[in-house]
Every structure is written in C-alpha cells, then in structure tokens.
Automatic annotation (TrEMBL):
Gene Ontology terms for molecular function: 4 iron, 4 sulfur cluster binding; coproporphyrinogen oxidase activity; metal ion binding
General function of this protein: Probably acts as a heme chaperone, transferring heme to an unknown acceptor. Binds one molecule of heme per monomer, possibly covalently. Binds 1 [4Fe-4S] cluster. The cluster is coordinated with 3 cysteines and an exchangeable S-adenosyl-L-methionine.
Annotated compartments: Cytoplasm
Pfam families registered for this protein in UniProt: HemN_C, Radical_SAM
InterPro entries assigned: Aldolase_TIM (IPR013785), Coproporphyrinogen-III_oxidase (IPR034505), Elp3/MiaA/NifB-like_rSAM (IPR006638), HemN_C (IPR010723), HemW-like (IPR004559), rSAM (IPR007197), rSAM_sf (IPR058240)
NCBIfam families, alphabetized: hemN_rel (TIGR00539)
Species, as recorded: Sutterella megalosphaeroides
Biological classification of the source: Bacteria, Pseudomonadati, Pseudomonadota, Betaproteobacteria, Burkholderiales
The protein's name in its UniProt record: Heme chaperone HemW
Cross-referenced PANTHER family: COPROPORPHYRINIGEN III OXIDASE, RADICAL S-ADENOSYL METHIONINE DOMAIN-CONTAINING PROTEIN 1, MITOCHONDRIAL
Assigned protein family: Belongs to the anaerobic coproporphyrinogen-III oxidase family. HemW subfamily.
Any single GO CC term annotated in Swiss-Prot or TrEMBL for this entry: cytoplasm
SMART domains (UniProt xref): Elp3
C-alpha cells in the first residue's frame, strides 16, 4: 500500500468505485504518412494480411486481466492510422470477436475513424452493418491548396463527397478539421468553420496545427504558419462561428450538438478505464484490491506492427510495458484529462476515480482558484477561460513534485 492509500484509509475516505470501461483498437496503417502526423502510423505494405492482424488483436484483447473482462464495454473506438482501409469483412470479424471476449452494452457507442480518400458510401454501409454507429471523418480542410500542403490523399471535392455519404449512412458523425494552417487567414478559416457547421455533422473537432517532434514538418517547417497571436484569434473565431450554429464547446478541441458529445472521449477525460489492442495502443484499467483500495494498471503495446504481431504469436500478448500507477502520480493523470473539459468535473469525482483523498490537492485548488485559473465553485474542478488559455501550466500544477509540499502535511 502506498503512502497516499494509507492516508486515505486513515482519514476514512470512501473506497473508490470502478469507472466505466471503454475499448480502443488501433489500426496502424495509412496510404502514406502525413507530414504533420506524430501518431503511430505506417505506410501500408503491399499484400497486407488484414485478417492476421485482426486475429492477433483479438488474442491480445483476451490477454487483459480477467477481473477487467467481467466489466461491460460502453464505448469502442477504432483509431489509427486509417481504420477505413479495413474491409467490411475484417471489421465484422473484429467486432464479432470483441463481443465473444468481452461483454458490450446494447447501446455502446462504436466509432470508426475514416479518411475521405479510403472510403465511399458503399464502404460506410458495410461499416454500419458491422456495428459501427458513429463515424469520425478526417476532413482537415475543404481547400485543395491547404489539403495539398498537409499531404492529404483526398481533395476538397472528395471531402465533400465523404461528408454527404456519411450523412446518408450515419445520423451521428464527427468531422476533424485543422486550423492555423500554412498561409491560412481568418477569412479562410471562417469559410472552413461555416462549411463544417453547415454540414449534417453532429460533432466537430477543430485542432490547431502544431509542429510535433519527429514529423516531416519538424524537419522542414512551413515558413508561412500563422503567428501565436493570429492562431489565438483563429481559435476564438472557431468557437464563435460554431456556437452560432448550435455547437457547444465542451472540450479543448471538441464541439457538439445537444446530446452528441463523444462518449468515448468523455470517458478518457473523466479518468475512466479503457483496454486496448493494436500496435502502439495504450490502455488503463482500475483493479479492486482486497483491502478496499485499488490499483491503476497501464499497459502499452509494441509500436512496430511487426514486433506487435511477433509478440502475440509467440507469447499471446502484445504488451511491451505494464506498470501500476502510484497514488502520487494519479492527481496529475486525472487533471491532465479532466481539465480539458470546459465544464470540468464534480470535485468528488477526483477521489472516486483516483483513490486519492481530495484533501491532498485542496490547498493547490485554493491557490489556483485565487489566481483565476480555476472556477471559484468548490464543488467543481473546472478551468476558467484563462485556465484553458494556460492549460499546460494548469495541468502541471498537479505534478507529483508540485504537490509534494502538500502531501507531507
């Protein structure tokens, strides 16, 4: 038992309850790698054996702790890479196999990421028949010029065809759009935001382009990126345009129509549990201990598809690393997620999900409320508008070393 677990018991804190369970499945292959992308994605090899990979993911999924497998999965997310490269047959086998290993709730949200250049309406219909009920389209832009600069394999016409097809097949779908792109102006972005908002999409994700280490853009950065002030103005513009169209910002990059928030991502942001399978996939599960405490276990799969397959076929699991998250590290993990939410979370959720007594962070909360980074309501842990602008600083205030002086009291 860690120091904080012992203090929780000594202060009579309630035993934490197990959070909801989600599933993340990673498809690591793309037609080609985009210059801004730092995700675990690889150019698809010729003659890719997709069924071999699907069967390996199912073996890998079965390797998670038995205690976790008794809890029903409430959301499934197929990300990548480009999952829409999968055939309908492979996806059907995967989702059928998942249900044979793990209980899945009847109303589970099942999302698949799709690239407009790798799917059409007939394929969307196959995905829907296989069980997908929410699509996430990687549009990124409705401009041929900006799509070319981003290295996308589709053009603006292809983006619009994909949106129209998605609307005919799915009543719930998301569009990913990027802003602060090379050469982009406020007026260009206004047009992008309005077109996205005027589509039939129920959810929009607007991401600011950032230059990530190890990407092609990091080696050869575009010379005409908007400066910091213009990028901030762009973020405010997006929020105004989408609000006028009925999209409410509920997360740093997420905007949703009423009742259409992404349940899978909300489970991430509220420190829920999620098992994972696929090359490079990460998972987190909470396991109850006999003494009334619990353990938080994290696992990461081999990032290389070849190493991932070899590990599963040799020992039945694709996990490269597995470890328990110490109590002292859980406040930062919780805040790294929860503070992304515009409305934050109930203060009582902190202890329920982390097993760490709220008093451990109370002085830090008071300090941040006084500085205007957190809302003044003691019943909620929520960022102010200023807090969202300085989100990284706000999150880092809960690092173990930043809380050490309070943990010793």
């Amino acid at each position: 038992m860690t120091t904080l677990d012992a203090r929780r018991k000594a202060h009579g804190a309630k035993a934490p309850s197990l959070p909801p369970m989600s599933l993340y499945l990673h498809w690591p292959w793309c037609v080609r790698k985009c210059p801004y992308c730092d995700f675990n994605s690889h150019r698809a090899p010729a003659g890719l054996d997709e069924m071999r990979y699907v069967e390996a993911m199912l073996v890998d999924l079965a390797a998670w702790p038995e205690a976790a497998k008794r809890r029903p999965i409430e959301t499934i997310f197929l990300g990548g890479g480009t999952p829409s490269l999968m055939s309908g047959e492979a996806l059907e086998r995967l989702l059928t196999g998942v249900r044979s290993i793990w209980p899945v709730t009847e109303n589970a949200e099942i999302t698949l990421e799709a690239n407009p250049g790798t799917a059409d309406e007939a394929k969307f219909e196959r995905f829907r028949a296989a069980g997908v009920n929410r699509l996430s389209l990687g549009i990124q832009s409705f401009s041929d010029e900006r799509l070319k600069r981003l290295g996308r394999i589709h053009d603006a016409a292809g983006a619009r065809r994909a949106v129209a097809a998605a609307a005919r097949v799915f009543e719930n779908f998301n569009l990913d759009v990027m802003f602060a792109l090379p050469g982009e102006t406020l007026e260009m972005l206004r047009g992008e935001a309005r077109e996205a908002a005027d589509s039939a999409a129920t959810h929009l994700s607007f991401y600011q382009l950032t230059i990530e280490e190890g990407t092609a853009f990091a080696k050869r950065p575009p010379s005409d990126l908007p400066d910091e002030d213009l990028a901030a103005d762009m973020g405010e513009l997006v929020e105004r345009v989408l609000a006028d169209a009925g999209f409410r910002r509920y997360e740093v990059s997420g905007y949703a129509k009423e009742g259409r928030r992404c349940r899978h991502n909300l489970n991430y942001w509220t420190y829920g549990d999620y098992v994972a399978a696929g090359a490079g996939a990460h998972g987190k599960v909470t396991l109850a201990n006999p003494d009334g405490t619990f353990s938080v276990r994290r696992e990461a799969r081999f990032a290389s598809p070849a190493k991932y397959l070899a590990a599963i076929e040799s020992c039945g699991s694709g996990a490269e690393t597995a470890f328990e998250v110490e109590s002292e590290a859980r406040p930062f993990e919780f805040m790294l997620n929860a503070l992304r939410l515009a409305e934050g979370v109930p203060a009582e959720l902190f202890e329920a999900r982390t097993g760490v007594p709220l008093f451990v962070i109370e002085l830090k909360l008071e300090e941040l409320r006084a500085s205007g980074l957190l809302v003044a309501d003691p019943a909620r842990i929520a960022p102010t508008e200023k807090g969202l602008l300085f989100l990284s600083d706000l999150q880092e205030a809960f690092l173990p070393e930043a809380l050490a002086e309070f943990n010793g009291r």
